[in-house]
Amino acid sequence: MKLLKEINLLEDLGINIFEYYDYRSLLDDIFQALRSRDGKYSFRFFAKLLRLKSPGYIQSILNGKRNLSETVLGRIIENFGFSTDEREYLEILVRIKKTSFTNPFYPVYKSRLQEIRAKKLKLKLVKLAQYECVSSWVHWVIREMFLLKGAYLNIQWIKKSLKHSLALNTRQIQQCLDDLREAKLIEIEGEKVTVPDPVLSLDPKSLPALLTHYHSEAILRSVESLSLDEENREFGSVIVATTKEKFKRFKEKLQKDRSEALQLLSVKPGEAEMIVSHSFQFFPVAELECETKDTTR
């Protein structure tokens, strides 16, 4: 069996790094491909190779619970046979995942990813634009704006309408519009913008990463909106001790009720007067890890 540094991802494992939009999916496929060739490549093996305290660290990265640090990224690059372009591509995938759309480095990373892809892959960048738009709370807000009454293509109108919730400059708004159009999530003809309903074709394995990025942005905006007056916001928070079975049933009811509630908000294109963000989180904060104390004595 070859050493990891001697393995060519494309030739030996059939993995083309430049077809990936999410570094977690890429690493997962690399680990699985190696394990299928030799059983010794377990999470424990990789943890030891990368000088990690626990195999659980790798699993927490792959399932989106933890971000890949620059230190561990460097160790992965050190131990795998990446080419110069592959190394740079992986580094940018990791950094752009931790970078907000409004961060000035975001367009720099995105532009470089597209440059490398254009050089390595002869394909349209629609899927990349779709991936970025679907995972971005900001893009969806601007897309929905074109369903408002009297909406038209004017950057200053967008900027003014968003001033209380999103401090975007002209360049950032234009980038959003370009992304949405490239992803075919909006259609522009002169000053007229229409919002079609395309079916996005994305790798199912990318969905957890997409949702993580989207909800991270949404939750941050929710915190900022706490300062709004009561008429323009609705918040609720509760902590409850329960059983796993009741929690499961509660989630099922929430999903049903949420779908019905969202239907109450639906209006025809051109009738909307405002855009609202709905965010709901319910998650375990403590679980029983030891035997309960006998209180009958």
What does this structure look like?
The longest helix has 22 residues, at 244-265. The protein folds into 2 domains: 4-122, no CATH class; 124-223, Arc Repressor Mutant, subunit A (Orthogonal Bundle). It contains 13 helices and 2 strands. The protein has a two-stranded antiparallel sheet with strand order 1-2. With 297 residues, it is mostly helical. The model has no long low-confidence stretch (mean pLDDT 78).
What is the alpha-carbon Rg in Å? 23 Å
Strand order of the largest sheet: 1-2
**How many individual β-strands?**
2
Which oligomeric form is depicted?
single chain
Dominant shape: globular
Helix and strand run:
HHHHHHHHHHHEEHH
Please describe the structure with a list of short key phrases separated by commas or semicolons.
single chain, 297 residues, Arc Repressor Mutant, subunit A, 2 domains, 2 strands, 51% helix
At a glance:
By secondary structure, this protein is mainly α. It contains 13 helices and 2 strands, in the order H-H-H-H-H-H-H-H-H-H-H-E-E-H-H. 51% of the residues lie in helices and 2% in strands.
Show the helix and strand layout.
Elements: H1 9-12, H2 23-37, H3 43-49, H4 56-62, H5 70-79, H6 84-97, H7 105-120, H8 126-134, H9 137-145, H10 155-161, H11 170-182, E1 187-189, E2 192-194, H12 207-224, H13 244-265
Antiparallel strand pairs: 1-2
